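Proteins fold. Shown next:

***
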Amino acid sequence: MTDTPLPAAPLDRAIAAAAAALAAARQADGHWAFPLEADATIPAEYVLLEHFLDRIDAALEARIGVYLRANQGQHGGWPLFAGGKFDLSCSVKAYFALRCIGDPADAPHMRRARDAILAAGGAERSNVFTRAQLALFGAVPWRAVPAMPVEIMHLPLWFPFHLSKVSYWSRTVIVPLLVLMARRPLARNPRGIGVAELFVTPPEQVRDYIRGPYRSAWGRFFKGLDSLLRAAEPRFPRRTRARAIDKAVAFVTERLNGEDGLGGIYPAIANSVMMFDTLGFPPDAPPAATAWAAVRKLLVEEPDRAWCSPCLSPVWDTALAAHAVAEADGAAAPAVAAACGWLAERQITAVAGDWSVRRPGLAPGGWAFQYWNDYYPDVDDTAVVGMLLHRAGDPAHAPAIERARAWILGMQSRGGGRFDGGWGAFEPENTHLHLNHIPFADHGALLDPPTADVTARCVSFLAQLGMTAADPAIARALAFLRREQEPDGSWFGRWGTNYIYGTWSALCALNAAGVGSDDPAVARAVAWLLGVQRPDGGWGEDEESYADAPHGQYRESTPSQTAWALLGLMAAGVADHPAVARGIAWLEANQGEDGSWAEAPYTAVGFPRVFYLRYHGYRLYFPLLALARYRGLRRANDRHVAYGF
């Protein structure tokens, strides 16, 4: 690769081809919605849901089987992302689903999977949510699942454990699950499928389903509390339990969210479907039918395979794609105006969602990730949409921008300490860290604390509107970002993989807030990005960096992570560095004939070490944004990035 800038003509051609590919993916009403893919877990759970209900669509399940078999790893089991390590819980669910679909237990691929599962300790060592799924099918006793009495619904706000003190995604999954755990239904399972062969010890003989290793003394305390609850729960008054179930049903019904589903996420929606079924709601009863339609809306059906998304991402996709179009074709481009119009209609202004428990009186004004999710907007989407509307410059959007600004300012974390000045994605002060040590939270993702990437996006938006580092809100946020910078100069990326994503986000925010390239934090971040550039000129990062893999390193470069690194370096004022030219050259050289890029690796995350994501749009709109920004800076003979994103 050359260290000199690309000639204008190849760069222009690459941008034009990418812009055309992005335009071809746009919906007729002006929005974008790309597939959002997780691992085998969600498609497998969907198959199990059909068998729980005895609503088996054999043709659909056959195509899901194609997807599941294709994603089996060389290790015999299933990973959490393409090319990843064996994951026990994912593998148990995928195996169970394939058995339900009709794959014989003695088929070679099933034997390989079973051997890998048994070598890892067997299904008895799978995570809490997997054991709950097994309990619904009678494959393990209910004591395999931590005690979570439905009477939790009665706890007051001041109590050490309250549903408002866990993240929105945990809350929406837990509430209908509490009903299932109280009623303990048994799946219809019309084919009588079991997976006893996946257990090292027969399920009834296992005595240590709830066990360490504990991450702190809190873990041992909560294990003792779990034992006490198990002994006490049978003595809870029936009337109290009935009222708690009624509260849970009311909670779910109020937040049913039409065909976009409870919380807009598969696990919560599926649990709501099973809850209504368990309570005797006929399939055509409005809430039950609505919940089932929401599950079906998540299916991605292709000619030769099918799978189920964890959720839909149209607001996120539309805002990001429109930013790329604005960079390439100008903010006045018709596609940008159409996207802004579509987004403006989806601002949440009438519902004070669950976030209002901590912010009573704050007027709503955010955007959700999905088509609709009024109870659960997030500040990340809101900031990205707000920056787009502001950039487009249409005066008609000024009230929406102001509502978003006020809502984001109101959602900033308070109270001093480590998290002061930062933003969590969905709720403020969701920082009761001890709750991540309850037995039910073996995934360690129960909470929504402030993170560097989300905080950076909020700073970028507010600074783009004209707020400066002298403003107290920005000053506190910048202090949070400085505290969160890693010793190597990078930032952790909660919602994207990982340190490349977090570092790009933080550098954009620092630039927007007027922090210069000579600032030590910026200089250290630039040095880190330069140091992890791959020999081919691109950047890549393994999802295992959420565990113990090196920061910012991978066996191959990826289009989206290369784009993030380039955008971060350009925000830091080093667009003329030879490394940037090499990165741009890598994007141009690896562009496909259709104008897009291929990207098999996953580059985003739902819950670190538990649930990873592949946004199918990332491989298109982020490289376009990076290429177009590079061209714009060259044309202007200016190294200053004017926008917060």
Observations:
- The CA atoms of residues 341 and 383 lie 16 Å apart.
